[in-house]
Amino acid sequence: MTNQHVALTEPNVLALENQVCFALTVAARTTVALYKPILEPLGLTHPQYLVMLALWEQHPRTLRSLAEALRLEPATLSPLLKRLEATGHIRRERSASDERALRVTLTEQGRQLRLIAETIPERVARTLEMSPESLIALRDTLNEVIRATTTAAATSPQPALAPAPPSS
């Protein structure tokens, strides 16, 4: 019997430990906490690390492209970029061809940081004591969840719940 089936057929379908949303929330929070002592010596927060990962993958990038890659609103991303610029990791500049577009580039310091950061995934895997195969399977499953929830949110808005009947 799968966990999904168990959660849907348990006598208490609303038990906290049966909720996928709870498991995802706790996993996200504890995973970010796991990164904190690894990233602190580099002067990065977890959100800043994600920005750097996106820029190490492709740079320069526009603010819009970076926001799309990180699945963040540009307004949410802007303070992260300001802090990364203040620490010398990136540079923000207006596009010469489109004054409205903000271009984000890595500085030499930002490029050098990648060499140190290359050890982070292995350190996290060792800390978790999970096999590479398990971590890859987990990542793939989470990407399926992201795709499914993104599609569901875009294509089928859920109707509001009806009010509960009055208790007697």
From TrEMBL:
Main location: cytoplasm
GO biological process: response to stress
Matches recorded under SMART domains: HTH_MARR
GO MF, one example: DNA-binding transcription factor activity
InterPro entries, per the entry: HTH_MarR-typ (IPR000835), MarR/SlyA-like (IPR039422), Transc_reg_Sar_Rot_HTH (IPR055166), WH-like_DNA-bd_sf (IPR036388), WH_DNA-bd_sf (IPR036390)
Domain HTH marR-type: 17-147
Residue ranges crossing the lipid bilayer per the database entry: none
Any one Gene Ontology cellular component term annotated for this protein: cytoplasm
Localization terms from the record: Cytoplasm
Keywords: Cytoplasm, DNA-binding, Transcription, Transcription regulation
PANTHER family named among the record's database cross-references: ORGANIC HYDROPEROXIDE RESISTANCE TRANSCRIPTIONAL REGULATOR, TRANSCRIPTIONAL REGULATOR, MARR FAMILY
Protein name: MarR family transcriptional regulator
Lineage: Bacteria, Bacillati, Actinomycetota, Actinomycetes, Micrococcales
